[in-house]
Amino acid sequence: MSALAARTGAINLGQGFPDEDGPAQVLEAARDAIAHGVNQYPPGRGIQDLRQAIAEHQQRFYSLHLDPDRDVIVTAGATEAIAATLLALLDGPEDEVVVFEPYYDEYAACVALAGATMRTVPLRWPDFQPDLERLADAVTDRTRIILVNDPHNPTGAVFSREVLDEVVRLAHLHDAIIVTDEVYEHLTFGVPHVPISTLPGAGERTLTISSGGKTFSTTGWKIGWVSGPAELVDAVLTVKQFLTYVNGAPFQPAIATGLRLGRDFFDGIAETLRHKRDVLVEGLRAAGFGVSVPDGSYFVVADAAGIGATDAAEFCRALPDRAGVVAIPLTAFATPERRADYATLVRFAACKRVEVLEEAASRLAALG
User: Fold this and answer.
1) DSSP strand pairing (143-149 vs 96-101)
2) Band of residue 5 on the pLDDT scale cut at 50, 70, 90
3) Which phi and psi angles does 308 have, rounded to 5°?
4) pLDDT at position 366 over 90
5) Are residues 132 and 102 in contact, defined by beta-carbon separation less than 8 angstroms?
6) DSSP code per residue over 20-89
7) What pLDDT, on the 0 to 100 scale, is given for residue 4?
8) For residue 6, what pLDDT band results from cuts at 50, 70 and 90?
């Protein structure tokens, strides 16, 4: 869809990357690191200062205590963190991974690479919270990993405490490991982000994944991390060293700088994105879409049925020529068996400049 946007000159509200740079202190720290020779291989676990900053961040925001030398590794973005974690912990087709559907597409790819089996729990329009009975049915003694993306891509849902508690209960009941993808942790709107690892009984069986890309608008730097019990982190490191080994030497001290920014920065990015979300939501409603108002993430899911869509994929392929806007069908994030459940739903990215979102809204209004 990004290629289609480039070819047609359409506004790209498909792929989730910002069109503004991150904080000046973070960018300057990267330039300074390059200028002072931080251009060779960093340690395999990541530079010590970044691991320390990650541990400080988890303590400051969530009261989680981590040993930066044992409980944290730095990865090539959350993408590698997810891949290395799944490859490390899955042994074959008898191992099952439970994910919420629709899901970030890497999950299915990495489960397949590991030769394991994926089971999905559907999230339903408009609030995209799972049915707890269906979640309990999906988790069995064959479940090796419960993979939780919260805040959730593509729906923007922030899962309720009831859902998180049930995940922990089921993980204990069936001796499963919890893996959480929390890259949007600082981008929630009026609701708190609650890491599963903070819940009673969860820490000893949870690996937490996050990154600096979304928080600091540096998605191209690909600096992520995995934290959790040392023996699980070591297993991930064993795989990671044969994927990228290391990455992003001058960007690691820059992300450490970002993680130490004041609380006003973190509150500010959430408030800024909330405003952008509201601009996009208002524009989509004015254009005739039904809208699920997200509690977090970069994205807004809209229902195009009200403007005549019956197939989200066909609608999105035609949208650049019809309205000069690119979006992504939610069916791209679903298994073939469940695509009918999301047949007219479309994901738009809100992480663009306000004037871009306003122009996109104006163009979409022509659809009505």
Assistant:
1) parallel
2) confident
3) 95, 0
4) no
5) no
6) S---HHHHHHHHHHHHTT--SPPPTT--HHHHHHHHHHHHHHH-----TTTSEEEEEHHHHHHHHHHHHH
7) 83
8) confident
